[in-house]
Amino acid sequence: MNPSIVVFDIGGVLIDWNPAYLYRKLLSDDVAVSAFLSDICTGAWNEQFDAGRPFADGIAELTARHPEQAELIEAYWLRWHEMLGGEIAGTAELLGRLKAGGVPVHAISNWSAETFPRAREIFPFLDAFEVLVVSGTEKLVKPHAPIFERFLERAGVRAEQCLFIDDNAANIATAAALGFHTEHFRSAEVLEARLISLGLLARETEAMG
Questions:
Q1: Are residues 62 and 127 in the same domain?
Q2: 66 and 117 inside one domain
Q3: What is the pTM of this model?
Q4: CA dist 20 to 15, 29, 66, 202, Å?
Q5: Is the same domain home to 96 and 42?
Q6: Are both 156 and 97 inside the same structural domain?
Q7: Which of 120, 13, 21, 29 is CA-nearest to residue 79?
Q8: What is the pLDDT of residues 172-199, one digit of tens each?
């Protein structure tokens, strides 16, 4: 059966987030930015915060190991909002159209419990979701199955009722294995076409007329 519910990832689908946006302001060139984010404030280090570790703990530990980089490491928290690149073109509009059309919309996001409220202040469309499962609050992270199972339990729905949208292939693979319909996000235009094909979204001309 076709899905009747849409479940969004947030970072990389609705919101553009990249630490390089901040560190390009603080370091001399892209080579230095790449080295810092590969060797010091790495993706694996950031994943601790998505899993629920307090920023204060992670920053204290890392600055103890790299005291010469303390100011740059502390900026990861103090200037976190400068890592936000804005809305990803078109997807928040699709979210609004789904909501206006009566389609239930939910989200499962890998995001720190400490920084998500700051994102919510900047992006009011994050209040559109009926059930919002944030990894840092749950202390469960994608691509592992328990966070998807937590969502299904909380929303009171079955996986096969849901279309799950994510830009990460590993997250898509887990969702598919659990029975979700999936859409590996590439662009709002491709997503819109998929939503229309599934009958979840009317074409804009149909919606207007």
A1: no
A2: no
A3: 0.94
A4: 15, 11, 19, 37
A5: no
A6: yes
A7: 21
A8: 999 999 999 999 999 999 999 999 999 9
Q: Are residues 38 and 62 in the same domain?
A: yes
Cβ contacts of 22 within 8 Å, gap of 6 or more: 75, 76, 79, 80, 82, 83
Write phi, then psi, for 202 (nearest 5 degrees). Answer: -80, 150
Residues 113 and 158 in one domain: yes
- Distance separating alpha carbons of residues 135 and 40, to the nearest angstrom: 23
The residues, ordered by sequence, that sit 6+ positions from 20 with a Cβ below 8 Å of its Cβ are 30, 33, 34, 37
Give me the residue label for tokens 């630490």: 19
Q: For residue 86, what are its two tokens? A: 């804005």
Q: At which of 31, 50, 84 does a domain end?
A: 84
Could you tell me if 107 and 8 are in contact, meaning their C-beta atoms sit under 8 angstroms apart? yes
Which residues span the domain enclosing 171?
5-16+87-208
First and final C-alpha spacing in the chain? 28
pLDDT of residue 207: 52
